[in-house]
Design brief:
The complex is a heterodimer of chains A (457) and B (351). Chain A has 457 residues and is an alpha/beta fold. Chain A has helices at residues 21-35, 83-92, 106-117, 135-148, 159-169, 214-227, 242-251, 269-273, 290-297, 326-341, 351-361, 364-379, 386-394, 400-421, 435-449, and strands spanning 7-11, 39-45, 52-56, 60-65, 69-71, 74-75, 97-101, 121-126, 153-156, 176-178, 200-205, 231-236, 258-262, 278-281, 301-305, 319-322. The two termini of chain A are 34 Å apart. The chains are: A alpha/beta (457), B mainly alpha (351). At the A-B interface, helix 1, helix 5, strand 10, helix 6 and helix 7 of A face helix 2, helix 3 and helix 4 of B.
């Protein structure tokens, strides 16, 4: 049976060269979807010298569009000004499905709006949790409601995230799928020789910001160091809370037991992780938390606060939960230290076993397969009439609903004008990237070098 | 049992591997180890979702395992499955407290007080501007009031048994004298600051800055000693408005008197009011009534309509708004759940 292949355009402000959960999700998911025979194009904003069209590993085509960055790597919202370039890309690449990522991304919202005006199918993936109480949450939720009013399907990375998104955007939960994140397990392999047997090493790798619960870390570290003379800490990452950690280290004179690495680049992460026995995560909110999966894959026993989607991520034998409280974090860490110290009698705590477990749990191929299932489900949905779209937008709120209708209507008219200025049949269609030729070239190279290619280039 | 139902996720995974060559190609030794060792959780509930999805429920040979809220197992359910447990941890209006009318009425006094104090300030300016009041009168009155207020504040601190240091008191007096001298020296400059600007512009800007002052004022009673954001914005707006107004006056003495009054009125008086509210709510209520009446009385000469409007406004804020607040509580829809950002509980802060 020949499967139908789709042309997919993923859009997000967050993509390589920036690093993070969304970025790696986009890249790996795209790679695996391409291996399943689909064509994937990624659209993001330009970053420094990285602008224009680039090809990444596996023939992944990335459009780096010019944009003004306003806040934490998100571009300036302009509503309509991106329509011409998005339309050119969608037509050129013969896109069937536009898949936007992350609620904070302006590009994602605009691409979905324009794609809907052009009658394309849209999917939205939410990667983070947001509360309902603060001003930014309220505003962003309104925007999310606008975008999600007219997407065919939404994807969330955990069940908690699904509940959050359904509430935030007032969605029908049956239109929301849960597809977790994944890791490339082979990049995170245990290496017992890297560990210092003299010590029990606790590794922390996170941005040092309030949301990652660094306040808890600051109070827990001296207490643990006091009660367990064999424990030392390696803390990687940078951020405003780093000064607190440095003060703590000075105050309790723990310079020889607390190592502060500063920011750690992505390729270095496995090398830092394998030095540890325990991974500590003190996040206050987390939709999925790839970091703990990476750590478990490296064979570390995980201690984590029980927040957001974290309880869904790993089985109890691999993770010790703590409440986001000082005493609870200390207790959980002490328990983990006890378990690690007694590792000889517990074969189920062996790093190799952890690694193979994680390998069976998470894989990008599985993610891509499940994402593909969403695509097939919506690819042939019947397009609702324009008035139905307006009806959906109108229901977004007393005032907001009318504004949203206005925006959608202007965008639709703009689409007609653009179609008259640059008729779709006059736009040159992009040439198909030949996977066969590419794979043959790779195989030739491999034979020549007889070593695996670097995965992330 | 048909084979496809018994296939575990892992073996299905291996089947799937040939037609999608794994990017990170699994190394043989780990794959075999993976086959040997299996976590309970993984093998237990693992089954092929794709295969299961294609089979109608009636054809099932064994009952479905109940759905579990986990991500690391492959379940016999589609990804968009909605379980009965969906949103079970949602808490609605969990920590909403219902307001008590009399408490809210008492709480509104801070707003009325501040509004009235701005009105009094404007009235003083108008009197000064028209010549109904001289700069020296204002200077004497405000200085006397400040000295009295300082004495009362000191007494309050004694009542509250806050440790009072003599040196601190001396420092305060020294600072005040220095500040007064500086202001006195600056007043000729401030008087001519906006000579080239039309008065209409000044009035409009003053109104805007007083609105900012009203909006950002620190109404809480918690912060007694220092002024923090956004209270600092409020104070800055008030001082800016005062400087603009003062530049419309015609004598140096008036400017000096007016600006020193402004600082006493907007920087020191709120601190005093906050202390008072802490010590005795009766005294606070009395201050509120007195301030509102003084504002109305001062405006009686200038404009009866404004005076009446002020009294009505104060009454509305004190008695109408609490009713309104309690009424809109019914529309409260507070959502809490596991997605909320946790508040870390830490006992020992180090400083």
């Amino acid at each position: 049976m020949t499967r139908r292949t789709l042309n997919i355009c993923m859009v997000s402000d967050f993509f390589y060269p920036a690093m993070g959960g969304v970025e790696s999700h986009l890249f790996n998911n795209a790679q695996c979807l391409m291996q399943r025979g689909h064509k994937v194009v990624i659209v993001t904003h330009s970053n420094g010298d990285r602008k224009g069209v680039r090809y990444m590993a596996g023939g992944l085509k990335v459009y780096y569009l010019p944009a003004v960055i306003v806040h934490s790597n998100a571009s300036l919202p302009t509503f309509f000004s991106t329509f011409p370039v998005f339309r050119q890309i969608f037509v050129r690449e013969q896109i069937d499905i536009v898949h936007g990522h992350q609620a904070f991304s302006t590009f994602c919202h605009e691409a979905i709006l324009h794609a809907r005006s052009m009658g394309l199918k849209t999917v939205f993936t939410d990667h983070s949790l947001l509360g309902f109480a603060d001003t930014s949450g309220i505003l962003l939720n309104k925007l999310l409601k606008f975008t999600l009013s007219d997407v065919q399907h939404a994807i969330c990375v955990s069940h908690t995230s699904k509940e959050n998104t359904v509430l935030r955007a007032a969605l029908d939960p049956r239109l929301v799928s849960v597809v977790p994140n994944a890791i490339i397990a082979d990049q995170f392999r245990p290496d017992p020789s890297a560990r210092d047997p003299e010590w029990i090493t606790v590794v922390v790798l996170s941005r040092l910001v309030y949301r990652k619960g660094i306040d808890l870390l600051v109070v827990a570290v001296p207490r643990i160091c006091q009660s367990c003379p064999r424990v030392r800490f390696i803390i990687g990452g940078d951020g405003p809370k780093r000064i607190d950690l440095e003060q703590m280290r000075e105050r309790y004179m723990l310079q020889d037991r607390v190592e502060l690495l500063g920011s750690v680049v992505a390729e270095e992460v496995p090398r830092v992780l394998v030095r540890g026995d325990i991974f500590l995560n003190t996040s206050l909110t987390e939709a999925f938390c790839i970091a703990i999966v990476e750590a478990a894959s490296c064979g570390l026993l995980v201690v984590s606060t029980k927040v957001g989607g974290i309880p869904e991520v790993m089985p109890r034998n691999m993770i010790t939960f703590a409440l986001p409280e000082e005493d609870s974090v200390v207790d959980a860490l002490l328990e983990a230290v006890g378990r690690v110290g007694d590792r000889e009698n517990h074969p189920e705590l062996s790093p190799q076993h952890f690694h193979s477990c994680v390998k069976t749990m998470y894989s990008w191929h599985n993610v891509a397969e499940r994402t593909e299932r969403v695509y097939y489900k919506i690819a042939d949905l019947e397009e609702p009439p324009l008035i139905e779209r307006f009806r959906r937008y109108y229901g977004c709120g007393l005032v907001a609903g009318k504004i949203f209708c206005l925006i959608a209507a202007v965008d639709y008219l703009l689409g007609i004008v653009l179609a008259w200025l640059w008729p779709a049949d006059k736009i040159e269609v992009a040439r198909q990237f030949s996977q066969d030729t590419y794979q043959r070239a790779i195989a030739r190279n491999l034979q020549r070098r007889a070593e695996p290619p670097p995965y992330w280039t | 049992m048909p084979p496809r139902l018994s296939v575990s996720f892992r073996s299905r995974w291996r089947d799937a591997a040939p037609d999608c060559p794994a990017l990170p190609s699994p190394l043989p030794e780990t794959a075999e180890e993976a086959a040997e060792e299996t976590a309970d959780d993984v093998s237990g509930a693992a089954s092929a979702p794709a295969a299961a999805a294609s089979i109608a429920p009636a054809e099932r040979l064994r009952p479905r395992r109940p759905w579990r809220r986990l991500l690391y197992i492959q379940q016999d359910y589609p990804d968009d499955y909605v379980d009965d447990t969906f949103l079970r941890e949602l808490q609605k209006n969990a920590n909403v407290r219902m307001y008590d009318y009399s408490t809210v009425v008492l709480q509104t006094t801070v707003v009325t007080q501040h509004l009235s104090s701005i009105m009094v300030f404007i009235a003083v300016f108008i009197n000064l501007y028209c010549g109904a009041m001289t700069g020296s009168t204002l200077l004497w009155c405000s200085s006397a009031a400040t000295v009295l207020g300082f004495g009362a504040w000191d007494m309050l601190r004694l009542v509250q048994q806050t440790p009072v240091q003599r040196t601190a008191r001396l420092g305060l007096i020294k600072g005040a004298v220095l500040f007064a001298l500086l202001l006195f020296g600056l007043s000729p400059i401030l008087r001519t600051l906006t000579e080239d600007t039309s008065s209409d512009t000044i009035w409009a800007m003053t109104v805007i800055f007083f609105c900012v002052n009203l909006a950002f004022h620190d109404y809480s009673t918690g912060n007694l000693t220092n002024i923090r954001f956004p209270g600092s914005v409020s104070l800055n707006a008030a001082v800016l408005a005062s400087v603009l107004l003062a530049s419309q006056l015609d004598s140096n003495l008036s400017v000096f008197a007016f600006l020193s009054f402004a600082l006493q009125w907007f920087a020191l008086f709120p601190i005093f009011r906050r202390h008072l509210k802490r010590v005795s709510s009766a005294a606070s209520v009395a201050t509120t009534v007195a301030l509102a009446l003084v504002a109305a009385a001062l405006f009686m000469h200038i404009s009866r309509a404004v005076a009446m409007l002020h009294v009505l406004g104060a009454l509305f804020i004190t008695f109408g708004c609490p009713l309104w607040l309690i009424w809109v509580q019914r529309y409260k829809n507070e959502l809490h759940g596991p997605w909320d950002e946790a508040r870390p509980i830490v006992h020992r802060y180090f400083h």
